[in-house]
Amino acid sequence: MWLSGPQPDPVELPVKCPQCNVDLVPAVRHKLKVNTCPTCKGMWLEYQELDELEDEVFDFGEEAKGTLVFQSTSTTAQCPECSEFLKKFRYRLYDLEMEFCPKQHGYWLVEDEDNRVLELMKKEEAGVKRSVRAEDQWTATLKRMRSGSFLSKVRDLFH
Ligand SMILES: [Zn+2]
Ligand SMILES: [Zn+2]
Predict the structure, then answer these.
(1) Whole-angstrom Cα distance, residue 138 to residue 80?
(2) Would you state the pLDDT for residue 155?
(3) For residue 14, what pLDDT is reported?
(4) Where residue 125 falls among pLDDT bands split at 50, 70, 90?
(5) pLDDT at 156 (0 to 100)
(6) Which residues contact 137 (CB under 8 A, 6 or more apart)?
(7) What is the mean predicted confidence (pLDDT) over 44-51?
(8) What ligand is nearest to the CA atom of residue 103?
(9) Contact criterion met (CB below 8 Å) for 126 and 116
(10) SS3 category, 23
C-alpha cells in the first residue's frame, strides 16, 4: 500500500474559463480546434496553436516574427490546465493584451482577439515583404554602382 496514495492518472479534465469558471467547449476557429467559453466567448489556445494561427497569414518563420512576449504582469486568472496564475502581456508589443500560462500550456484570448491576431499578422507580413523588397532594391543598386558600366556612366556625366 502506498502511503502517499496512488498517483492520479492524467485525465482530461473539463477545462474551465479563467474568467467565468464555466466549462469550455470545443470549437473550430480559423481551422484550429480550440476551447471556447460559451459565456464570455473567450478562447483557450494551446501553446503551439497561437503560432499555428499566426502561420495562417504569416509564415516567415520564427526569426521574422520576432519576440512574442516582451514583458508580462501577474493576474488572478488561472490556467485552465494547471491552475497556475496566468500572466498578462501585450501581444508583440501591439495594443492587444492576452494572457498566457507561465508553464506554457497556452494562451487565453478574449472574444475576437484571434481575429485581431490575424489582422496584426497581415500587417507584419506586409512590413516584412516591404523590407525584403527594399533590401533587394538596395542590393541591386549596390551591384549596379559597382559595375563598370555604372561608373563609366557617372564619369561620362562629368566629361
Ligand atoms: Zn468565460
Ligand atoms: Zn498551465
Answers:
(1) 49
(2) 62
(3) 72
(4) confident
(5) 60
(6) none
(7) 93
(8) 2
(9) no
(10) strand
* Chain centre to alpha carbon of residue 102: 15
Instruction: Name the pTM for this structure.
Output: 0.73
Q: What is the DSSP string of 45-108?
A: EEHHHHHHHHHTT--SHHHHH--S-S-EEEEEEE-TTT-PEEEEEEGGGSS-EEEE-TTS-EEE
- Please give the distance, rounded to the nearest whole angstrom, from the Cα atom of residue 99 to the centre of ligand 1: 13
Residue 86 CA to ligand 2 centre (angstroms): 8
* ∠ Cα 89 100 91 (to 5°): 35
Domain-wise residue ranges, the chain: 25-158
Residue that wins the pLDDT comparison between 4 and 108: 108
Give 113 Cα–ligand 2 centroid separation in angstroms. 20
> Residues with beta carbon < 5 A to ion ligand 1?
17, 19-20, 37, 39-40
Cell numbers that stand for 145 in this block: 554602382
Instruction: Determine the pLDDT at residue 115.
Output: 96
